[in-house]
Amino acid sequence: ITAEKAGFDHFMLKEIHEQPKAYRDTMMGRISEDGKSITLKEIGMTAEQIRGIQKVHIVACGTAYHAGLVGKTIIEQLARIPVETDVASEYRYRNPIITEDTLVIVVSQSGETADTLAALREAKRNGARVMAITNVVGSSVAREADDVITTWAGPEIAVASTKAYTSQLIAFYLVGLYFAQTLGTRDEQYIGEVTTALLQLPEQVEALLEQAPVLKLIADSIVKHNSLFFIGRGLDFAVAQEGSLKLKEISYIHSEAYAAGELKHGTLALVEDGTPVIALVTQEELAEKTLSNIKEVKARGAHVLGVTNHSNHEEVAKSVDEVFSIPNTLALLTPALSVVPLQLLSYYASLALGHDVDKPRNLAKSVTVE
Ligand code: G6P
C-alpha cells in the first residue's frame, strides 16, 4: 500500500496533525468509563509482581530515549519506584545492575532498533522482566518482551519522529497510573484528575495546531542563525532535548539543550548578541528559577522565545522577546503539549531552508545496525 500524504506537503506535517488521533487511539479502552481506573490487559504482571519491582530501567534510542526521560518522571511521581533512563547503545556496556526485581522498559517506535533489541536481550539474560512500548505489532521487540504496550500512532513515515514520541508519552502516563493504582501510591480521586486531563489533550493539541502560522514566522527568523539553545528545568528540560534533536535532524542547524540552571557552568560563554534561545517555562514550581536563567541569557544579548502555558503567559512575556503559550494542563502532562510547537518550529525551519523534510541526510527511520 502506498502511504498517502492526505493533502499535506510532507509526511512529517501530516503526522504532526495526526497526534490528536494517536493520543485518542492510544488511550482507547485503557481508561474506565468513570475515568477512575486504568485497564492494561497487555500487562501480564500480577499485583504481587508489580509490588515486587524494586527499580525500573528505561532503555531506548533517539526520540524514544527522550520519551523515556519523561517516562522516568512519570513513573517516579506516580508510582514512587526509582527509575533510570539509558540510551540503549550505552546500557549494556556499563555493566548495569539488573536483577530479577528490575523491570526494564524498552521504548521503540519500530521495534527493530538493534541496540534496543540487544538491551532487551541483555535484560532478559539477567532475569529482569521486560516491558516494551512499541508502535509496531509483531516487531522483534514486541515478540521478545514479556509485556507489550502498543502505541496506536499508526505508521510513521517521516524520519523525524513526532506522533510516535507523543504516543509513547501517553503510554507512559497509562503505565504510571496503572502502577499507582496497583501500589496504592495514588488514590482514585487523583487518578481521576489525571485521566480527565489526559482525555482533554487531543483537543488541546488541535488548538495548538491552529497556531502553526505563528511558529512559521518564528522559524523564518531562526534559520538565519547557525546555532541556538533550548533551555528548561525538570520536564521542560526533557522536552528541550527532544526539541533540539528535532531541529538538528531536519534543519541541520546546530543546537543544544541545556538544563537551565547548568548554563552558567559553561555554555553561557557561547551566548552572543542575537543568539536564539528557546526557553521552556511550563512547570509552575520551577518557573521563577527558569525566569532568572532567561535574564542571564538576555543580559548577554540572547533573543529569547519563551514557551509557556496560558496561565504563565503574562509573567513570561515580560522577560522574553517572543512568547508562545500552550493550553493549561497538569504539570506532569505538559510534555504532551509543549513538544508540539517545537515539532512545528523544526518543520518550518527545514522547509524554509529547502531541505528534504521527510528524508534528512545521513539518517534512517530505523537503525538495525549497532
Ligand atoms: C532512528 C530514527 C529516530 C528514532 C530512533 C529510534 O534514529 O531516525 O527517529 O527515534 O531511530 O528508533 P525506534 O524505532 O527504536 O524508536
From TrEMBL:
It is found in: Cytoplasm. Residues 46-185, 218-360 form the SIS domain. Its main location: cytoplasm. Keywords: Aminotransferase, Cytoplasm, Glutamine amidotransferase, Repeat, Transferase. One of its GO terms (cellular component) is cytosol. One of its GO terms (molecular function) is carbohydrate derivative binding. Homodimer. Catalyzes the first step in hexosamine metabolism, converting fructose-6P into glucosamine-6P using glutamine as a nitrogen source. This is Glutamine--fructose-6-phosphate aminotransferase [isomerizing]. The chain holds residues 241 to 610 of 610 of the full protein.
